[in-house]
Design a protein that fits this description.
The complex is a heterotrimer of chains A (463), B (226) and C (241). With 463 residues, chain A is of the alpha/beta class. Chain A contains 24 helices and ten strands. Helices cover 55% and strands 10% of the residues of chain A. The longest helix of chain A has 24 residues. The radius of gyration of chain A is 26 Å and the shape is globular. Chain B has 226 residues and is of the alpha/beta class. Chain B has one domain: NagB/RpiA/CoA transferase-like (Rossmann fold, 3-Layer(aba) Sandwich), CATH 3.40.50.10420. Chain B has six helices and twelve strands. In chain B, helix 4 links the parallel strand 2 and strand 3. By secondary structure, chain C is α/β, with parallel strands linked by helices. The chains are: A alpha/beta (463), B alpha/beta (226), C alpha/beta (241). Chains in contact: A-B, A-C. At the A-B interface, helix 2, helix 3, helix 4, strand 1 and helix 8 of A face helix 1, helix 5, helix 6, strand 9 and strand 10 of B. Strand 9 of chain A pairs antiparallel with strand 9 of chain B.
């Protein structure tokens, strides 16, 4: 058994037995469901809008080289500088060098999952920089020394009392149970940090080939401040974030907000096309964009699952996933939690180590229905299971299914086996058998009938 | 070091040698073009000017932004003065603009017009920022500001209150129309920042409970002339 | 019409009453029923476990069983989805692809068949009970069956149909998932079963016997009064032959 799988099983077992936490998470999601439904109803046809969003991403991803080159040409024409990173280490080195060149001391970051993916904060701190997460949820998780729980709502599992205690400990503020007051504590604390920071690091939600702009979506205004006040702006983005044009963006921006957070539009959707221009009174002097591959091209090479690169990281699939709602986001041990994380992590970090995430699904398909860009999420979990079995078959699984198939391909043996199973079931229930005892630990089995359907059919129709 | 750019682009071209089938949608067949005109399926932006204004005001209200409709520029100046008094502003920042300057200059408190270069520490100490905008989008209740039309990047985000002064002819139906207009207007060079502001700054990070004023303005006023 | 019954393997062995009820209802509607005894399991457990080579053998075998059947009807959204949705995927680019597509076209889930194919919503059943309907994920999301079973239930005399807050939530069965990840599966059925128990209904009805196995198994263990019942059993209530 792989290490990642052991950790997952342990964490998931603990979390799924935590009833009060489940109620807390469901309550937090309750408001989201209500708002999402209100906003979806404002679309004249949500399903067709999903088609359009899906096609917009399909077009860009399936012409990725040209789309990226068009984007880069435009972006550099606007005065920004593009850096290409094949993997996480290369991306970290590029960013560290940019910060060193800027002779920076303090770095402020706005929320960016791609920086989590490359473990940027660790690298920056090791290099001696002070780095602060400015998104409220990320700020709280940074103080907690914990990875984000949900890639859109990083601290949705943390109770206000815990946040109050955390702020008292780290910031010396008086305890309060008011979410508003807690938010204001963070606001006051972070304001001066924006003003003092030399470098601002952000992500990017979309790269627009037509105009060479990067688009950043956020609610709090921290990304706006991060890209306005420091001298240097560094953005990190996966190569798959590129779209063809602003028309496509006019579909994707509202759908991202509605699917992900139940909003008509996220509070700030900002397009950046360069550093401060002549005639503009502020803005960074330098604007860098790091384009990251980090195994995305491996996913691209799989046409069956290529649509996973359409993901706009709205988090809708997590919000509806019964697995996520029961095991929570931390148990996954991945940068991207929930269904999309279970689909892409085996591609990004290795199928052998991470295939258990594909198995940990009832394949209910709620994720696929929720996805605004129509990624075939739950079927890709099946594809990953198939690929894992082909790459490194599990001996027990092979024997089990080959054995089962031996029986079911012989109808008379099947009928006989079924009979034996029914008659011995009371005894079998008492023996520790794989699968059966796992079932019986929390669930009963109905008493086995004396006669099977086929036996009764034979009697009444031919007997 | 091998060229990362060439290597990644090479990997992409190699990966794309096998094509993925174009998604087919149950709802209808969409022809061969790369994108679908999604406008008829997105939220309505209003056919007529009065429908657009009604939608805009409805959406702004839901977003907890304050819309003040005024008949003319003089009334806009008065409206700003009234907000300033109610909120007891000590210091207000603004940028030079035919709609903004007269209103801001008439305020009875300390005024600061942001100039060619912006003192961010000074801006941090301001109670409010007053700006113009590029457009307002009735479909979503969004206000488009830019580094060119709205006094740079910080003025509309750092102060605790943001006031936008605009005219009704700046209202457009939807995002798509808005983008078209922007591209047309800034044909030679895009402002380095274009930002759609949809309500005052907010967060739901603590127990997913809505709190206004996370980092950006806690309050957003739109003074709409016409 | 001559209907060939597709009885899932565990219904055959553990819930034969579901098969018998299906026969009763379809006969009552005036159709001829056959049961081909060479059928066993559709191969879904192996398919879901990534053992597609094994599952493919099951699919080819099942194709052969139903080769000349006029229509195939099964009282399980999940097993029918295997034939309708996953056989074509499993067998694409093989010599069986066309046959898989053809079988998919003439295979129906029980409630889907009655409402969509036969155009009937009232089969003449009566049951004086309060029931709530559970949407099996395969029926709802793979086959897009949502209204059909509700239409059938609303027409049952004396029956009161109420909705559950979690009617679209997965029960946590998921085939081998239920025993490979029993703790997650149990947490899911706790959510589902808890919501069902709160409705005060007499029965939770579904078109999917596997969901009912999971839900019923938990409800019994927890001593909840609400009982599982397959939609075919409901529709067979009060029918006169």
């Amino acid at each position: 058994m792989s290490n990642a799988k052991d950790i997952f099983l342990k964490e998931a077992t603990t979390a799924s037995a935590d009833g009060p936490q489940r109620i807390f998470i469901n309550k937090a999601l309750g408001g989201y469901y209500a708002n999402r439904d209100i906003q979806k109803a404002r679309y004249r046809d949500w399903e067709k809008a999903r088609d359009a969003a899906s096609l917009a991403k399909w077009t860009a991803v399936n012409d990725l080289a040209n789309t990226l080159e068009t984007f880069v040409k435009k972006f550099e024409g606007n005065g920004g500088k593009v850096h290409w990173a094949r993997d996480a280490a290369e991306a970290r080195n590029i960013i560290l060098k940019l910060i060193a060149d800027a002779k920076a001391k303090a770095v402020v970051k706005s929320k960016c999952m791609t920086t989590e993916e490359i473990h940027l904060n660790d690298a920056l701190e090791k290099a001696g920089y002070s780095v602060v997460e400015s998104d409220l949820g990320e700020f709280i998780q940074q103080l907690r020394g914990e990875a984000p729980y949900h890639f859109v709502f990083p601290c949705m599992h943390v109770k206000r009392e815990e946040i109050s205690a955390l702020f008292t400990k780290h910031l010396g503020t008086a305890p309060t149970n008011s979410p508003e007051e807690l938010t204001m504590i963070a606001r006051r604390h972070l304001r001066q940090l924006y003003v003092d920071a030399d470098v601002g690091i952000t992500g990017a939600n979309f790269l627009i080939a037509e105009t060479g702009q990067i688009s950043i979506t956020e609610n709090e205004g921290n990304a706006r401040l991060t890209a306005a006040l420091p001298r240097v702006h560094i953005a990190l983005s996966g190569i798959e974030k590129v779209v063809k044009n602003l028309d496509d963006l006019s579909v994707l921006l509202p759908m991202l907000a509605t699917a992900g957070a139940g909003q008509p539009m996220t509070c700030y959707n900002t397009l950046y096309s360069g550093p401060q221009q002549p005639g503009e009174c502020d803005g960074p002097k330098e604007f860098h964009l790091v384009l990251l591959d980090n195994a995305r091209t491996q996913l691209l090479a799989d046409p069956e699952q290529r649509d996973a690169l359409h993901c706009i990281r709205c988090g809708a699939c997590l919000n509806v996933c019964p697995i996520f709602k029961n095991i929570g986001g931390l148990a996954y041990g991945t940068t991207y939690q929930g269904p999309i994380g279970s689909v892409i992590t085996p591609h990004l970090r290795g199928l052998e180590q991470w295939n258990h995430l594909s198995g940990a699904s009832s394949l209910c398909g709620a994720c696929t229905d929720a996805c605004p860009v129509r990624i075939d999420l739950h079927h890709h979990l099946l594809h990953n299971r198939r690929n894992a079995n082909q790459a490194s078959p599990n001996l027990f699984d092979r024997l089990f299914h080959r054995g089962f198939n031996f029986v079911i391909s012989r109808p008379r043996l099947f009928a006989f086996g079924g009979r034996v199973f029914r008659f011995t079931l009371p005894v079998l229930k008492k023996i520790p058998l794989p699968y059966l005892s796992a079932w019986l630990k929390t669930r009963d089995l109905p008493p086995a009938p004396a006669q099977s359907f086929r036996e009764q059919w034979k009697e009444s129709n031919h007997g | 070091m091998a060229n990362a750019r060439e290597e990644i682009l090479g990997r992409i071209r190699e990966a794309l040698k096998v094509t993925a089938p174009k998604p087919h949608f149950k709802s209808e067949s969409h022809g061969a073009t790369h994108s679908i005109n999604a406008k008829p399926w997105l939220p309505d932006g209003g056919e007529t000017e009065s429908a657009r204004l009604e939608l805009l005001s409805e959406n702004l209200a839901k977003l907890k932004a304050n819309l003040i409709r005024v008949p003319n520029a003089a009334a806009a100046n008065q409206a700003l003065a009234q907000i300033s008094q109610t909120k007891n502003w000590k210091k207000v920042a603004y940028h030079s603009h035919p709609l903004v300057s007269p209103a801001a200059e008439a305020l009875p408190c300390e005024k600061w017009e942001v100039g060619a270069s912006l003192d961010k520490q000074k801006l941090e100490g301001c109670d409010a920022g007053v700006t113009s905008c590029e457009a307002l989008v009735s479909q979503l209740g969004s206000i488009l500001v830019s580094s060119e039309s709205s006094g740079g990047r910080s003025l509309s985000i750092l102060p605790h209150v943001h006031v936008v002064i605009a005219t009704t002819d700046q209202v457009v139906a939807d995002l798509e129309t808005c983008f078209k207009q922007v591209l047309e207007k800034h044909r030679s060079k895009l402002p380095s920042m274009l930002s759609f502001i949809t309500g005052p700054s907010r967060t739901g990070d603590i127990e997913r409970i809505l709190v206004l004023g996370a980092h950006g303005p806690k309050e957003l006023y739109v003074i709409l002339i016409g | 019409m001559r209907i060939s019954l597709f009885i899932p393997c565990f219904v055959d062995q553990l819930a034969p009453q579901v098969g018998l009820a299906s026969v009763k209802v379809l006969k009552k509607l005036g159709h001829e029923i056959e049961f081909r005894s060479e059928q066993t399991c559709c191969g879904q457990p192996s398919f879901n476990s990534g053992q597609w080579d094994v599952a493919r053998e099951g699919a080819i075998r099942t194709l052969k069983v139903f080769r000349d059947a006029e229509v195939v009807v099964g009282p399980s959204g999940s097993c029918v989805a295997m034939i309708k949705k996953f056989y074509p995927e499993l067998l694409k680019n093989t010599s069986h692809a066309a046959e898989a597509d053809a079988l998919a076209q003439r295979t129906f889930e029980f409630s889907e068949f009655i409402v969509r194919k036969l155009g009937i919503t009232d089969v003449g059943a009566s049951l004086k009970k309060k029931v709530t309907y559970h949407d099996g994920c395969h029926a709802m999301r793979e086959l897009r069956i949502k209204e059909e079973p509700r239409q059938l239930l609303r027409a049952v005399r004396g029956l009161e149909l109420i909705e559950t807050e979690e009617s679209e939530s997965c029960c946590g069965f998921g085939g081998l998932f239920a025993v490979k990840f029993p703790m997650i599966s149990t947490a899911m059925v706790q959510v589902k079963g808890g919501a069902l128990a709160r409705t005060g209904a007499d029965y939770v009805v579904s078109s999917d016997p596997s969901c009912l196995l999971q839900i019923g198994g938990w409800l019994t263990r927890e001593g909840k009064p609400i009982r599982p019942m397959h939609i075919a059993e409901v529709l067979a209530e009060g029918l006169t032959q």
